[in-house]
Amino acid sequence: MHAASLRDCEAWRAEGLKLSTNSNEACKMYDAILTQYVKWRNDETLGGFEGCISAIQAADPNFVMGHVISTGLELVATTSSTRLNERLASAVRRTVELADSQDITPRERLHVKAMELFSHGNFPKACDAWEDILLDHPTDLLALKFAHDAYFYMGAQTPMRDSVARVLPHWKPHMPLFSYLKGLYSFGLMETRFYDQAEKVAMEGLALTPDDAWSVHSVAHVCEMKAEVDKGLKFMESREKDWQVSDVLASHNYWHWALYFIEKGQYEAALQIYDSQVFRRCKTTGSMLDTVDACSMLYRLEMEGVCVKDRWRELLQITQPHTDDHVTLFNDLHFLMVSLGAKESRTSQRLLEGLQELAKEPGENQQHQLAGTIGVPMCQAMMEYDQGNYSGAVEQLYPLRYHIVDIGGSDAQRDLFNQLLIHAAMKSENKHHQKLGRCLLVERDAVRPNSPLTDRLMQNALALHI
């Protein structure tokens, strides 16, 4: 990315996306931050995210959209909560005050409103505001990307797909970042089980931009969901040089690579990726995506009977400070895996009680509204399982199985809870649960034929209950 090709005030106006500032530098830095967000990478030639955020504030400290993008990115990262982080909460308030004191465009006002709603945990209303923007400004990529992420946190698979489908006809190949829409659309197609179409669209994106890590990620998901393990391994390996430059997503793509090894029962290979890539990166970045990947990987390996106890203790150092955040249920459940794995029962208890407390008066926070019906029982199911009360775990999890999508994340990430239910059902003393476990395996085999993991579990089921 060359600084010369970044859009100035005039260029944004020409695209019908006027920015309320007289500073060309501020406009260019806005473009630089947006570009890095879409590409999932810190571009050092531009100074990375940090450098650009400092530069935008220096260029025009009162530039509303500068605040919207920098504060919005911190919110969307879900690494801290405005309930606990006064600096972040006041950054949101400052943006709202700036917007109120200036004559800005209706589009920019909607951006401020969406960011404020998101900061209160009102993800659905935030998405409505972003969609409002896209109705009149279908090429507003910041609105599209923020909405995409928020839908992801809600497990809103169809809206995530359709949000991109609606704007696609308005995008032309010469427009900046055009090719990245392929990856966004592909991911929505994949999450709504249009696997062949998803793969086709992702490959179109990669033909235009070989280092588009989100398109790579979409293909990785397709291989995961169809249990095309060897194809997935080959694909990730052959394109590693291209996608690993996207430092923000690289760890997650390595996580997908490791999942294929877990699927094949090649635990050492998976652990090697965990140690050399996933944990190493999550320790350096503190990124929430990297952190939850590390949590889920150890949990999967442990369910498969691999001993990872020292790794739990190391990971606890990273997750424990987030115990009281409660930004998303998805994050909470992953932190709980670690405190349970590290046998840190005080932390587990604190996380559960904090969630129960917030569920009593959730206000407009969509995640806290779901805490009582989904978050708390799922935490309890994991605790029951951890204590060896397998039938209790089944009783909590089974009624929720078609609602787990609401905790957000992808089908591949949530599959861990399908596996947990199967393990709990097979280990339960209750004959009815054992039968349920076998039924769940038959069902799993039907949607994902030739899965080595399913075959292994079926063998176990036979051995256990003869």
TrEMBL record:
Organism in which the protein naturally occurs: Lates calcarifer (Barramundi)
Similarity comment: family membership: Belongs to the TTC38 family.
CDD domains: StaR_like
Residue ranges crossing the lipid bilayer per the database entry: none
Domain of life, per lineage: Eukaryota
Protein name, entry field: Tetratricopeptide repeat protein 38
UniProt entry keywords in alphabetical sequence: Repeat, TPR repeat
